[in-house]
């Protein structure tokens, strides 16, 4: 049946979200460098704020790509 693998993927995604949430919750004060990397654009004016985390999102993309590659390789 087509819904059985779909349910398994939803559970795996849910577990991943919980694990990421626990990491951010328990180690949030140690992740202050994230979002303040060289290459992250931040413009703050009197009535205007603009933030574009280019380097941080590239880092997240690389980590997620590696995790998905390992997941597909072994599962």
Describe the structure.
It comes from Pontibacter ramchanderi. With 75 residues, the protein is mostly helical. The protein has two domains: 1-29; 34-74, no CATH class. It has two helices and two strands, in the order αββα. It has helices spanning 3-27, 54-74, and strands at 41-44, 49-52. Strands 1-2 form a two-stranded antiparallel ribbon. A hairpin with a 4-residue loop joins strand 1 and strand 2.
H-E string: HEEH
Beta-strand residue fraction: 5-15%
Distance between the termini: 20 Å
Poorly predicted sequence stretches spanning 5 or more consecutive residues: none
Strand arrangement within the widest β-sheet reads: 1-2
Secondary structure tally, helices: 2
Summarize the main sheet: 2 strands, antiparallel
**What portion of residues is helical?**
55-70%
Mean pLDDT, as a whole number?
85
Question: What's the number of extended β-strand segments?
Answer: 2
Tell the overall outline: elongated
Radius of gyration: 17 Å
SSE class: mainly alpha
Give the tally of structural domains.
2
Please describe the structure with a list of short key phrases separated by commas or semicolons.
11% strand; 75 residues; mainly alpha; elongated
In a nutshell, what does this entry contain?
The protein has 75 residues and is mainly α.
Q: What is the fold's blueprint, element by element?
A:
Blueprint: H1 3-27, E1 41-44, E2 49-52, H2 54-74
Antiparallel strand pairs: 1-2
